[in-house]
Design goal:
The protein contains five helices and seven strands; from the N terminus they run βααβββββαβαα. It has 135 residues and is α+β, with helices and mostly antiparallel strands. Strand 5 and strand 6 form a beta hairpin. It starts with 12 loop residues before the first strand and ends with a helix.
């Protein structure tokens, strides 16, 4: 089970470790790469993976064209289950709304996209060739 209190002595924890414990990234190295790439900001500032995160810090992150803005509610240096990880942060209402709109727009675009199921059949190739020969 995740430790939901501040780190033992300081009340701080490394940013990459917190992102990993909060289950935003699968590994600490992926979290560190995202931080180095500028996809994660703390209080609107670009930081390094070893940046000390405190309770109350606002973290903005982008991942696969989606964005989150979360407030650090608790610190943990251990990765637990999803219910424990959700207790580490509180997402802003605007962030939730924007992300849900982006997901809905992506799903709408996929619904209208043509479905290509691989190589055309012999019949489809003949029809295509007939169409091209007409011109």
């Amino acid at each position: 089970m995740a430790q939901l209190s501040p780190s033992p002595a300081t009340g701080r924890i490394r940013l990459d470790k917190w992102l990993w414990a909060a289950r935003f990234y699968k590994t600490r190295s992926l979290a560190a790469q995202a931080i180095e790439a500028g996809q994660v900001k703390v209080d609107d500032e670009r930081v390094k993976p070893a940046h000390a995160v405190k309770v109350g810090a606002m973290i903005a992150m982008r991942k696969q064209s989606l964005s989150w803005i979360v407030e650090v509610v608790a610190l943990s240096d251990r990765r637990g289950g999803a219910p424990d990880a959700a207790k580490l942060y509180k997402e802003t209402e605007e962030s939730i709304r924007v992300r849900e709109e982006a997901i809905a727009a992506r799903e709408a675009a996929l619904a209208n996209a043509p479905v290509i199921s691989g190589r055309p059949t012999k019949r489809q190739r003949r029809k295509l060739q007939e169409f091209l020969d007409e011109a």
